[in-house]
Design goal:
Blueprint lengths: L1 H16 L4 H11 L4 H19 L3 H10 L3 H13 L2 H29 L6 H4 L6 H19 L5 H24 L3 H28 L5 H46 L6 E9 L6 E8 L5 H15 L4 E8 L10
Parallel strand pairs: 2-3
Antiparallel strand pairs: 1-2
Helix pairs in contact: 2-5, 3-4, 3-6, 3-9, 4-9, 5-6, 5-10, 6-9, 8-9, 8-10, 9-10, 10-11, 11-12
Length: about 325
Amino acid sequence: MATNLRQRFQDFRYKQFQKLELNQIQEELNAESTLDLSYIILIVSSCTIATFGLLSNSAAVIIGAMIIAPLMLPIRGLAFGALQGNITLFRKGLVSLCVGTLLAVLISWCLGMLIRLPSYGSEISARSEPNLLDLGIAVAAGGISGYAKLEPKISGSLAGTAIAVALMPPICVIGLGLAQLNWSLSLGATILYSTNLLGIALSCMLIFLLAGYTSMRRASKPLFWALGLTAILLLPLGVSFTRLIRQAQLSTNVRRALLNKTVTFQRLELLKIDSNWLANPPEIRLNVRAKEPVTPRQVQLLEAFVEREMGQPFTLIFEVGQVEEVRREVSN
């Protein structure tokens, strides 16, 4: 029965994946991994757009840069070259990837030094705290990329878009962090970039292996290295993921405590609550509406209450919109 199942799997794999001859896919990946003028132009343009989008805190502009980013091309060549033991293809992909990465960091650093914003927005800070969710995104994007290369019906731009989402923005954040000498920002973005790079390469390898372009015996060593390097990043990613869950739980508990256990919020209407976990102590910004003003004494008492309930201090910042009743004049 095991032999029958193995034969069915091999037939399925052949029908689903064997779209391109080995020589053909090697030639295409070799061309995609070559460091040429077109590749440099795409790196410069995508990095410039992404950096301006990050500085202006514009998600739409960042997405535009993601679409044209070419970094996925040498990653596929690098992954295929490692599986096949093709040193030339592996070296081409590695050189193109390193040159593109260093060039993007240099461009973003120059733009950061030129513009010199006093502080960065949420789009930049969001890419400095990677967690296990980012690894999952990278693995999924790499799988799409590998399958798109083997399946002619899928447009190549689909894979490029999916993978560029995970690569170009964190590279630009590295340069922007260096421009401000913000080492924690650059370190977080570097971990995110490394996580996405390894996740993409690993899933590409698995797709190429599943497609039958190499044997498990030949692929075991590069897969071992890819899995080992990815495993090293699991510790910081796991810590960040645990912290993310705890922060979400704390935000929910703070909101519940303020609404249900305080007299002050019985006469306030809470419109929005935001948390800033980078501050020390963490800041809770509350947007409320009230008929009467909120006094500093009330804020102090609420902070003391939250600290007792949560077991750690918080800074409460109220944004109060006054509610005023207006009626028509009554004529005599």
